[in-house]
Specification:
The protein is of the alpha/beta class. It contains 13 helices and eleven strands. The longest helix has 18 residues, at 269-286.
Length: 294
């Protein structure tokens, strides 16, 4: 049995989604078993994934959630009690149903250019997860040169120390810090998480800590400053550890974007079309057998 299942949440961008999965299979296919494909109930711009699902064949497990949450926070009592509600979160169906020892979570706008899974499997060890730690580019502790992706596991400021850092080096999202920082448990800091656009999860370690088995909220359940920040905070305060992994040699997130991120295309049809056209060009060059029609 392959050691890794893949979880991908899909909201639009069918051609970029195809690039993500086909490039991942091209470089890391030997490690991959099932591909858990969460197809959000709402889709922008008439997006269709029939061609991709058919092309990938029986290795794909398609999940269409009962609810569409977007980025709204969810009620914790329903997360614990009702699996259709909980599994409407973007990666949770795969999290609970995969039988592989590792789950690789990817955004649907990543271009893979090397065997990222082989490299991550070689370093994950007993950590709960491995991936690119951020978002230091927004964080007061990073501006003060007190913390970095390589040192955050050792940097545990008190709440007062954090307040002073935030006053001296306010980040672009400083107005939200009071809402999300727990004075009793300020670490990890509010910007801190593994960026789930390319994250390998050790299921033996992660499942017991995460709802419905543990107390950590699932990815995307409580949208602190980002999708994974609350889960990250919860598991690290359960004495788990994570490993920072720089993906630059293996993958590029938002590779087709001119803005450096994936959200702009969902609000601007011109940007969306441009990115999908770039993805179509990549597919024609690298997978000429892939059907570009719906």
């Amino acid at each position: 049995m392959q050691r890794v299942d893949v979880a991908i949440n899909v909201y639009g961008k069918p051609r970029q989604t195809a690039v993500t999965l086909l490039s991942l299979l091209m470089h890391s296919g030997e490690h991959i078993g099932r591909i858990h494909f969460t197809l959000e109930r709402r889709q922008p711009s008439g997006a269709s994934f029939r061609s991709l699902i058919g092309h990938l064949g029986d290795r794909v497990v398609v999940h269409r959630p009962l609810f569409w949450f977007g980025v709204r926070p969810q009620r914790s009592k329903w997360l614990m009690r009702w699996s259709p509600y909980r599994q409407s979160l973007r990666y949770q169906h795969a999290w609970e149903t995969s039988t592989a020892p590792y789950l690789f979570i990817t955004h649907n706008d990543v271009l893979y250019e090397g065997d990222i899974l082989g490299a991550m499997l070689g370093r994950v060890g007993e950590h709960v997860a491995i991936g690119p730690v951020g978002q230091c580019w927004n964080c007061p502790a990073s501006y003060a040169q007190r913390c970095s992706p390589k040192s955050f596991m050792r940097f545990h400021p008190s709440f007062r120390e954090w307040q002073q850092l935030a006053r001296d080096h306010p980040g672009p999202r400083a107005a939200h810090y009071d809402r999300v920082v727990d004075p009793q448990r300020p670490w990890p800091l509010p910007e801190c998480r593994i960026n789930e656009w390319s994250m390998l999860v050790n299921q033996e370690r992660a499942r017991p800590l995460t709802m419905p088995h543990g107390n950590a909220v699932p990815l995307g359940a409580l949208y602190g400053l980002d999708i994974g920040t609350q889960w990250f905070h919860d598991v690290l305060n359960s004495r788990a550890s994570v490993e920072h992994f720089d993906i630059a040699a293996y993958a590029t997130h938002a590779w087709a974007s001119s803005t450096g991120g994936g959200h702009a295309a969902l609000a601007d049809r011109g940007i969306y079309h441009t990115e999908e056209t770039r993805a179509a060009t990549w597919l024609k060059q690298n997978h000429p057998d892939f059907p570009l029609t719906n």
